[in-house]
Each structure stands twice: as C-alpha cells, then as structure tokens.
Amino acid sequence: MQMANVINETKRRKDIVVKAATDQFQIQEQVSKLLRGETVNKKALRVAQMVTFIAMFYLFNIRSKKLGQVTGLKASSADPTFDELSEKLEGSEKAIRTLMREVRTLKETISGI
Fold first, then answer.
1. What is the pLDDT of residues 40-91, one digit of tens each?
2. What are the phi and psi torsion angles at 36 (to 5°)?
3. Which pLDDT belongs to residue 99?
C-alpha cells in the first residue's frame, strides 16, 4: 500500500511540474507575441497618429462643428446668418464656462479665508 502512495505522489508531483512548465511556456509565448517588433511598431504608429490628431485639434483650435468640415466628412454651411449666430452662441457658451470657473475659484478662495 505504501508503494502505491509513493507512486501516486510521484505522479502528482510530475503533473504539477508539467502544468507549471506549460503555463510558463504559454506566458512566454504571450509576452513574445506582444513584444514582437511589428506589433510594437503598429501600436507606436497608432499612438503617434492619435497624438498628432489631438495636437492638431488643440493647436489649431478646430471647433467640433468645424472638424467635420476640415476633414471633409461634412459639407460646409451655406448660411452666413446661421454661421454668425452659431459663432456668437459658442462665444457666449465659452464666456459662461469661464465665468463659472472664476466664480468657483472665487468661492474656494473665500471659503479658504
């Protein structure tokens, strides 16, 4: 009976070692797949494109409604009155956001005194 226990224990240890080795090999495969040159280059290119897009958006102050026009995804408006009123509305919205931020800062300053 004791010999059977020793054999079973040996088999159990062998199974554990084989499973651990297989798991380690699978992890190494996944890491090498992620770190392949073409994969890294592809991801780096995507990040660079996104950064370029964001930089263009902020540097040139392209408004969201005009972004479609600049990229050619949306036809430009032919109504100058609408465009003028739309720009005034956007300016008013920006002024309100600035005012709200300044009021919040003033309130924080006053409550800190």
1. 777 778 888 877 777 766 666 555 556 566 555 555 567 788 888 888 898 8
2. -60, 145
3. 92
Quick check: 110 pLDDT over 70?
A: yes
In angstroms, the CA 104 to CA 110 distance is: 10
Task: For residue 82, report the phi and psi dihedrals to the nearest 5 degrees.
Answer: -60, -45
Q: What is the DSSP string of 36-98?
A: -HHHHHHHHHHHHHHHHHHHHHHHTT--HHHHHHHHTSSPPP--HHHHHHHHHHHHHHHHHHH
**Can you tell me the distance from the alpha carbon of 84 to that of 74, in angstroms, rounded to the nearest whole number?**
18
Structure tokens at 25: 């090999």
Residue 69 · residue 75 · CB < 8 Å: yes
Sequence-ordered list of residues with C-beta below 8 angstroms from that of 89, at least 6 positions apart, any chain: none
Radius of gyration of the chain (CA): 31
> What is the rounded CA–CA span in Å between residue 12 and residue 18?
10
Q: Whole-prediction pTM value?
A: 0.33
